[in-house]
Amino acid sequence: MSQLVTDIGRDELRGEGAYRALCAALQSGRYRPGDRLREAEIAAELGISRTPVREALGRLVGRGLAVAAGGRGLVVAILDRSQVLELYAMREILEGAAARMAAQRAAEPELEALKAMLDAFVAARTDPLRMAAVNRDFHAAIVEAAGNRYLQQALGELQDAIALLRVTTFTAPKRPETARREHAAIVDAIARRDPEAAEQAARLHIREALRTRLSLPT
Questions:
Q1: Which of 12, 96, 161, 208 would disulfide-bridge 203, Cβ 3.0–4.6 Å?
Q2: What is the number of H-type helices and E-type strands within the chain?
Q3: Torsions phi, psi of 49, nearest 5?
Q4: pTM for the full model?
Q5: Please, what sign has the CA dihedral across residues 103, 108, 113, 117?
Q6: DSSP-assigned letters across all residues of 132-183
């Protein structure tokens, strides 16, 4: 009996690892909306049995990140317009709260890191995918500076869903420059220890990102 329990425990650990690996693959763009998620291939790549992979895929389905597609099995979900609106509505609330808390709690090294990311964003201005990566790091750094583990968890889950969006908004001609200004306004408010201004700047940034998102070709 004890060996069986041990084996189940190992499968649970493997399932968690498989789940995290799949989420990372979504974040990196390795799996895109509409792509098939083949249980056997994933298990072989991760070097584990199919049981924990099945568990991990079930978690993706439960979170709406993967869906059944008839004879095609499971595929990465494609978000419709209403889902995008819901996603950005929650993102605006949570990102605003993170910026407010960061203005209250950020340490000097965290402020310096945010300022460095402003320069990194400008340096990546000719590469939309690189800008998107810097942008993710920028927002993650604000959440880290906020110092709230539950907020960090909630925004982490939103980021997994954001990964389902087909193309970065930084492909829009004017978005890199407007985003640069919005980022600078957020950092300035955090550095001035102005929670209200930081929250409003962050919320405006997300609203503008949504406006650009909805203008992109589908």
A1: 96
A2: 9, 2
A3: -75, 170
A4: 0.81
A5: positive
A6: HHHHHHHHHHHHHHHT-HHHHHHHHHHHHHHTTSSS-GGGSTTHHHHHHHHH
Cα 170 from Cα 172, distance rounded (Å): 5
- Please provide the distance, in angstroms rounded to a whole number, between the alpha carbons at the two ends of the chain: 54
**How far, in Å, CA of 18 to CA of 28, rounded?**
15
Mean pLDDT throughout 97-125?
97
Whether the Cβ atoms of residue 76 and residue 66 lie closer than 8 Å to each other: yes
Amino acid at site 39:
E
Helix (H, G, I), strand (E, B) or coil at 67: strand
Residue 68, SS3 per DSSP: strand
CA–CA–CA angle 100, 104, 107 (5° rounding): 120
Most confident of 9-18, 59-68, 142-151: 142-151
- pLDDT score of 73: 84
Instruction: Name the one residue in this structure whose structure tokens are 């193309």.
Output: 167
Tokens of 121: 């964003």
